Amino acid sequence: MPFSISLILIIYGLGTKKLKRKRIAIISSFFILYLISNSFLINKAFNWWEYKPVNISEVKKTYDVGIVLTGGMISLSQTADHPGLGIQADRFLQAYLLYKNNKIRKILITGASQKSLRDAGKGEAQQAAALLVLWGVNPGDILLELNAKNTRENALFTSKILKAQFTGKSYVLITSSFHMRRATGCFKKVGISADVFPADFYGSDENTSFKEAVVPDPKIVGFSQLLFREWVGIIIYKIMGYC
After folding, report:
1. Tens of pLDDT along the chain (243 residues)?
2. N or C: where does the chain have the smaller number of CB atoms within 10 Å of the terminal CB?
3. H/E element holding 224?
4. Which whole-number Å values give the CA distances from 221 to 8, 51, 136, in the listed order?
């Protein structure tokens, strides 16, 4: 990841005795840090990479299954008696809105949590399902796949459920917009063709101020890491033949 590379370059620059290499390392580190903390550049990168939003009013059919990928949807706790929303809770919120607007009939949530949490009924998918029930979703319309540890397994394990119970039906994939490319590629690889309903957007159409375009912002580093990690992930997945 860029932040780690920058730190390695700083350490190398401090350790090397050759002045030219020291300068190159420090300047390169500075350039990387500036790049990943620049609001304007990272926002443009997200806008380029992310799928565009889809209005619920634009969804003209009712899908048999809405597939929701876990990951940051629930703030997990083994001691609290209620769940908290995670930073990517928009995924199952959008599934809920589609369900309430009669755009999907079933909600399939896929993703593993720690065994201790699953055994206690507090896994991410389980707590998301519990919230959906509290919001009025029929428990019989929620399916859980609790074993997938990554996007490849999300697709692989979900495809078995779909082919066994919903063969020949229609599906819509609901996940973070920045993650949608890798997710759709994985599902296509296992023979599941699904439309997409992106959620959890990071890019913005708001005009960038001069300050945002020039002055580094430390909180942007986390968002840039998220995007770079996804780019690395999709490259590795393509090399492995997963998507």
Report:
1. 898 999 999 999 989 889 999 999 999 999 999 999 999 999 999 999 999 999 999 999 999 999 999 988 888 666 667 778 888 999 999 999 999 999 999 999 999 988 888 887 888 999 999 999 999 999 999 999 999 999 999 999 999 999 999 999 999 999 999 999 999 999 999 999 999 999 999 998 887 787 778 889 999 999 999 999 999 999 999 999 999
2. N
3. helix 220-240
4. 16, 21, 38
Q: Give, as one character, the DSSP assignment of residue 142.
A: E
> From CA 114, how far away is CA 112, in angstroms rounded?
7
User: Domains of the chain: which residue ranges?
Assistant: 1-36, 56-196
The CA distance from 58 to 201, in Å, is 18
Which residue from 226, 229, 183 is spatially nearest to 43, judged by alpha carbons? 226
